[in-house]
Amino acid sequence: MPLLYQKEWGRSSAALSIEKTRQEETENLPLNQQYNFNVYKFRYRWQKRILQIDFFTQMIFNIEKGTLKKQFPFEQVKSCEDNDGLRFVISFHGHQDYELEAACMEDKQIILRIVNEILQMQKNGQTSPVKSFVKKNAFSDVVLEGLLERLDNLSNKWVKYLVKVKRDEVIFYCSQKLVPEKICVNMQDCAVCAGSYNSMPTFSIHCTGNTYIFRIPLNEQNKSLEKTTSMRDDWVSILKEFCLQSHQCPVPEGISVASKNLEMEKEERFYSQLNTSSECLKVEDAYKVYEEVSLIPLVLENSGTAATEKIPCSTPSPQVTSPCPFLPPPLPVPFRPLNPSTRQIKTKAFHWNTVPQEKINKSMWGPKFAQKKIDTQRILRQFQTSDFSPVLESDIAKQSNILLDQKIAHNFSIVLKHFHMQPEELKEKLLIIQECDGGLSDENLTNLRRYVPTAKDRGMYLGYKGSPTELHIVDQFMLQMCKIPDLCPRLDTLLAIREMPIYMKDIHPLISQKIKACKQLLHSQAFPAVLTYILAMGNCLNETSGKGKAKGFQLSTLTKMSQLVSKEKSFTFLHALVEQILLQEPDLAKFSQELTEFEAVPGASVKGLNAEVDVLSKQLETIDQYRKSFKSKHHKSSTSEEQFLKELKEIIERYGMQHTELTKKAHEMKKLYSEVLQKFGEAEDQDSQELFGWISSFLKEFQNAYIDLRPSL
After folding, report:
1. Which residues neighbour 398 within 8 Å (Cβ) at sequence distance 6 or greater?
2. Which of 676, 671, 667 is nearest to 520 (CA)?
3. Is the whole-model pTM more than 0.85?
4. Strands 169-174 and 44-54
5. Beta-carbon neighbour count of residue 684 at 10 Å?
6. Which of 307, 356, 358 has the alpha carbon at shortest distance from 154?
7. N or C: which end of the chain has fewer CB within 10 A?
């Protein structure tokens, strides 16, 4: 129950004690585990999501029906803002803000505290995307990889490279040059050290005869020197762990004074844009300046002349002026009053697509078209809207005595057009759980949830001394809403009851599918046999190339098989695998028949589905807590209130049994997936959505390779 409404309506000492206990638990929340919260996209109540904050992987996940839709490392969190009611906003670097509504005030307070702790961890240097990557890939072949900028000795320009750190070597890939470049450096023969180049934090890798200087690329996430320095230090510490020597590397010669000054000028202009006092300047403009300066032709030391191809340097982007504050749209112009003859009957509109005027004459609707005679009064009566129309949209702008804020009243009046009832009926309607029994629709409940009166509204309406009938219809509904003591939690309970069976129905087959997929992997004999062929072929190549033999490989390797091509560009390592299997064990080529659950690309993940079950459990507990609270406040219950309590109890019992069964299946799924990870030597935190996707892609690529080879066999 939201704390605002608990305080407004008063509670027993027991309720106060419970709140105090929860508050203490929130303050002493352990930040070394995984948290799941039921949230909604603001203004879109039907878009339910799970917000998972995982301190083990230092990631925030956006989960929808078990599928990991988005994931953000802690380092990407930019800020967190507390808004009115249940609203809050989480801002990320390089991604649009998340404007969400929590399921209850307690969840919102916990989320805000956890996110603020993450921001504090960033300030203290306790979060690092580099270290998070290393931790996640501790058992992988590639321990660390990322996009860095390398100083090119010939052009004195910074060129982007994909850098992969393995246990025995560092590999640099560059696709920006005319001829793609790949450089391999043996870890045992190199030294790593931190340094700076023109006030920018850099690090260098020095091996026999060569020195490579790198820096962290500048982007929105790493726009400060502190951030880039911290990430540089993380790269250095990781690389040093795999090097036998780490003495200071000499700065390479051949760097011209002109290029140094140019680089200094570029950095000064870039950081002057970033550190500008005007907050309205966009970071993208500063990046544009950064890129524009790099277009100035460089002077090479050896030649002493400018490069032959001169690219003119653009002028910096003008400073962006501060945008105007957002102003709400004006209310529509008042309609002119209708004459009495047209106001007697209000009908539904028939929406059709009209024939364009230029086509009328040559169509059946032309001059010879004869209008049919109809009984207009009969038609009007048949399609007449409800006799009670709470509010006319044009009525709000003309009214000056409405108590509610005019903009809110205007929006609320549009919502009330779908409420075909008197304001006095609202309280009883909210005691009916199901729409089929006469309760409000899901849409009406959601709209009421958006317009729950604030504390200020309640004070104004409950202090009104006049007759309710003298109020505008919008005010009459607001007055009735203020008279319902537990309106907010009751609406949340009704919406949760409507949502729960739908989510259980959606999640149950997804969990069953994951269980079947795990069982197929555990029981399949053909798939491990195929993997042994891959291991034998890989060792055959690596032994002759000097890389050495391996005892096993991770399933992520399956995605790389089509990338290794032979002398014939159309023949890949995957084609060679199919060929070897057909030569040695032809029946093994049908191994996919044992993995039918992987024919479609898996969507939901074990991690996401467990989060869904966890949130459903909390939701069921919240409904039961509301039932107990409602019962304690209504000792002398009316007939409708007794029926409401009875139905709540039945629903909790029915959904409780279904949830117990769902929880058992979720435990089975988690146990089987752990066995799968153990069988194939994968990391304990390896996500199933990714792992099952590798297998699914491999099956499709294997079949395609089989089709390619079949004509030649």
Report:
1. 334
2. 676
3. no
4. unpaired
5. 9
6. 307
7. C
User: What amino acid occupies position 35?
Assistant: Y
Neighbours of 404 (CB within 10 A): 23
| Nearest C-alpha neighbor of 102 from the set 14, 8, 35 | 35
| Positions in the chain short of pLDDT 50 | 1-26, 245-344, 387-394
Torsion of CA 218, 219, 224, 227, to 10 degrees: -90
| Structural Rg of the chain based on CA atoms | 33
Q: What is the pLDDT of residue 702?
A: 92
Burial 249-276 (b: 16+ CB within 10 A, else e): beeeeebbeebeebbeebbebbbebbee
Residue entry with tokens 């159309």: 570
Q: What is the pLDDT of residue 289?
A: 39
The answer to whether residues 236 and 218 touch, using CB atoms and an 8 Å cutoff, is no
Local structure of residue 614 (DSSP, 8 states): H
* Alpha-carbon gap, residue 480 to 489, rounded angstroms: 16
Structure token pair of residue 689: 């959505």
Under 8 Å between Cβ of 623 and 496: yes
Integer Cα distance of 321 and 674 in angstroms? 55
Query: What confidence score (pLDDT) does residue 700 get?
Result: 92
Residue 500's nearest CA partner among 663, 666, 655 is: 655
Report the DSSP pairing between strands 59-64 and 44-54. antiparallel
What torsion do the CA atoms of 696, 699, 705, 709 make, to the nearest 10 degrees?
A: -170
Closest CA to 491 of 447, 425, 438, 436: 447
End-to-end CA distance of the chain: 70
The secondary structure of 645-683 as a DSSP string is HHHHHHHHHHHHHHHHHHHHHHHHHHHHHHHHHHHTT--
Q: Which residues of 5-31 are buried (b: 16+ CB within 10 A; e: fewer)?
A: bbeeeebeeeeeebbeeeeeeeeeeee
Backbone angles phi, psi at 548, to 5 degrees: 95, 170
Question: Can you spell out the DSSP letters for 173-223?
Answer: EE-SSSS-EEEEEEGGGEEEEEEEETTEEEEEEEETTEEEEEEPPP-STT-
pLDDT at site 314: 37
Closest CA to 576 of 433, 418, 408, 709: 709
**How many CB atoms are closer than 10 A to CB 1?**
23
Contact at 8 Å (CB) between 313 and 378?
Answer: no
List, for residues 469-483, the tens digit of each pLDDT value.
888 888 999 999 999
CA distances from 576 to 222, 529, 570, 646 (A): 44, 16, 11, 68
pLDDT of residue 272: 45
